[in-house]
Write a structure and sequence with these properties.
Elements (H helix, E strand, L loop, with lengths): L1 E5 L5 E6 L4 E5 L2 H7 L4 E7 L3 E5 L2 E7 L2 E7 L6 E6 L5 E5 L13 E3 L15 E2 L11
The protein binds zinc ion (2 copies).
The site of one zinc ion has 9 residues, from loops.
Length: 138
């Protein structure tokens, strides 16, 4: 399926033509800070299927499993996705930046043990307190 999206100001756009590898909520602290809210929802696509155009900056931050390169617009600050070193060749697109989410359905949630008091974890998906040990997810 073909998907398009972009940042708040429109300077950074992307298109992806691929079936999602997975769709997942992440409640980890880094995703919380990046979003400015209580979690992020990712749709994972192969890098090879993703075409990014316009302004782009990359912020790379170490985490427990290596580093994550977060792709964002230098004009408005919107992050469109992340590329974890633990998942070579995969970009976790932020579902909030998609123009259309028809057919996108979260499958699981990770780092559920780290939620703050008011956060309601999506009850319709499988929940992991941390990522599963063999996980390939955000
Ligand atoms: Zn922007
Ligand atoms: Zn996260």
């Amino acid at each position: 399926m073909k998907r398009a999206g972009g940042c708040l100001c429109g300077a950074l756009r992307y298109e992806a033509e691929a079936e999602p590898i997975y769709v997942a909520h992440c409640y980890c602290e880094d995703c919380r800070r990046e979003s400015g809210s209580d979690h992020l929802t990712h749709v994972a696509v192969p890098d090879a299927a993703l075409r990014i155009s316009g302004a782009l900056k990359v912020y790379e931050k170490p985490d427990a499993r290596g580093t994550i390169r977060r792709l964002f617009c230098p004009e408005c600050g919107t992050t469109i996705g992340g590329r974890p070193a633990s998942q070579p060749g995969v970009t976790n697109i932020r579902t909030g930046t998609l123009d259309d989410v028809t057919g996108i359905a979260p499958q699981f949630a990770v780092f559920c043990a780290r939620v703050r008091g008011w956060t309601v974890i999506d009850p319709d998906v499988k929940q992991f307190p941390e990522p599963p040990p063999d996980a390939q997810e955000p």
